[in-house]
Design goal:
With 207 residues, the protein is α/β, with parallel strands linked by helices. The chain has a domain at 61-196: Vaccinia Virus protein VP39 (Rossmann fold). 27% of the residues lie in helices and 27% in strands. The chain contains six helices and nine strands. It has a seven-stranded mixed beta sheet. Helix 5 (105-117) links the parallel strand 4 and strand 5. It starts with a helix and ends in an 11-residue tail after the last strand.
């Protein structure tokens, strides 16, 4: 735990009530997941550019998504859009197993280095098409999507959600909102929540 990470966690308290989420924010050094040129800005509550035209999301948005997932310590989680790896690192402290999928091999490799430095042994990195999820390990107790899914949730991700499972994703094009889908025995229950801004979730594998 760094002083800066602890201070960031405290600043997020007004918007996030889940103490486990706040503790995870305090424990993960965000500077490991930003570009070298932006390390002095790692604890600002802003999104920052990373490689491959992607971003590391604003901390308050990351924390809010984690809270909405209602994670239990033994949950199995699919993280769509590894990006910098920061979101997956936090998930690893909140759940039992994390499978994080990224279309850009460069980003996945960089994230793996950070996970190794932090000795996060419960994160599995996959290079592939996040739109299709990871059926080999489905069903998941929670699915986190860190890219905007356009007009609706990808059907494959809906299908990979366990009964009682929660899926949180930004949905929309010009105007995006966080959506939480909950799998019930009767189907999906959908809530539309906070306005957000994410890069689009692009079908297909990357480089």
């Amino acid at each position: 735990m760094t002083d800066q990470a602890r201070a960031l966690s405290q600043r997020l308290r007004s918007a996030v009530q889940d103490e486990r989420v706040l503790a995870a924010i305090a424990a993960v050094p965000r500077e490991l997941f930003v570009a070298d040129r932006d390390r002095d800005r790692a604890y600002e509550n802003v999104a920052l550019p990373i490689a491959c035209g992607q971003t590391i999301s604003q901390p308050i948005v990351v924390a809010r998504m984690l809270e909405l997932l209602e994670l239990a310590p033994d949950d199995r989680v699919l993280d769509v859009g590894t990006g910098s790896g920061y979101h997956a690192a936090l998930l690893s402290l909140l759940a039992g197993a994390v499978f994080t999928i990224e279309r850009h091999a460069e980003l996945s490799a960089r994230a793996q280095l950070a996970f190794a430095e932090l000795e996060l042994g419960n994160v599995t990195c996959i290079v592939g098409d996040g739109w299709e999820g990871f059926p080999e390990q489905a069903p998941f107790d929670a699915i986190n999507v860190a890219a905007a899914a356009g007009s609706g949730l990808p059907p494959a991700l809906e299908e990979q959600l366990a009964i009682g499972g929660r899926l949180v994703a930004p949905v929309g094009s010009s105007r995006q909102r966080l959506v939480r889908a909950r799998r019930t025995p009767d189907g999906l229950s959908i809530e539309r929540l906070d306005p957000v801004r994410f890069v689009p979730l692009v079908p297909g594998a990357g480089d």
